[in-house]
């Protein structure tokens, strides 16, 4: 079995998908995230914008090869909001994503099963409206060499269509590259076998 080196996510936020049930309004939002700090910023902004709402329930997942997630019911009965939202993140197989469902209470209680259905459906509709993209899992390397070996290094980079993230070119040069995970071992070997050239993996 080949190791997975792609993942699915969204690139741009998805705004306000509305689901109604017994006078309650549920607004779904999806955001691409890279850290827990992003989560806090998006939720704080929604609380300001929808300050009259009753609940701001959410779930998020971060990571590609190893993932972490959190689900929050924000005052709704246990597991009636956050986990149904997270279930849709799993169902659509997306990561680095935050889904928030903002609820305006309409005066009629929905019961736990009604809440589960409402939050799950809102998350599903939000994901269906989102532009989901597939990205590759990349490994980053730093190539260190003397300036005289520049042509040798650049030839390998060009031949293999490698993305350069950053470079520091002086007497001693550093070029930072990212390579698709499945191509990383063979590329590492190419540079490792070149005379006077050092390649090291950058661990995030």
TrEMBL record:
Gene3D superfamilies linked to this entry: Impact, N-terminal domain
Any single GO BP term: regulation of translational initiation
Any Pfam family matching the protein: Impact_N
InterPro entries: Impact, Impact_N, Impact_N_sf, Ribosomal_Su5_D2-typ_SF
Domain of life: Bacteria
SUPFAM superfamilies: Ribosomal protein S5 domain 2-like (SSF54211)
Listed GO CC annotations: cytoplasm
Domain Impact N-terminal, first and last residues per copy: 22-126
Family statement: Belongs to the IMPACT family.
Name listed for the protein in its UniProt record: YigZ family protein
Protein source organism: Confluentibacter flavum
């Amino acid at each position: 079995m080949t190791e997975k080196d792609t993942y699915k996510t969204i690139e741009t936020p998805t705004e306000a998908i509305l689901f109604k049930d017994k006078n309650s309004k549920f607004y779904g939002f999806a955001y691409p995230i890279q850290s827990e700090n992003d989560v806090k910023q998006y939720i704080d902004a929604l609380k300001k914008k929808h300050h009259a709402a009753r609940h701001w329930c959410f779930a998020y997942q971060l990571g590609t090869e190893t993932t972490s997630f959190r689900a929050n019911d924000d005052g709704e009965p246990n597991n009636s909001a956050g986990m149904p939202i997270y279930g849709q993140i799993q169902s659509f197989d997306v990561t680095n994503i935050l889904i928030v469902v903002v609820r305006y209470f309409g005066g009629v209680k929905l019961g736990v099963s009604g809440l589960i259905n409402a939050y799950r459906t809102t998350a599903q509709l939000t994901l269906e409206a989102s532009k989901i993209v597939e990205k590759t899992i990349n490994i980053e390397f730093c190539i260190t060499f003397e300036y005289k070996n520049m042509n040798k290094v650049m030839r390998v980079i060009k031949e293999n269509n490698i993305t350069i993230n950053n470079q520091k070119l002086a007497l001693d040069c550093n070029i930072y590259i990212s390579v698709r995970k499945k191509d990383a071992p063979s590329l590492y070997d190419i540079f490792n076998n070149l005379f006077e050239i050092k390649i090291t993996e950058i661990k995030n």
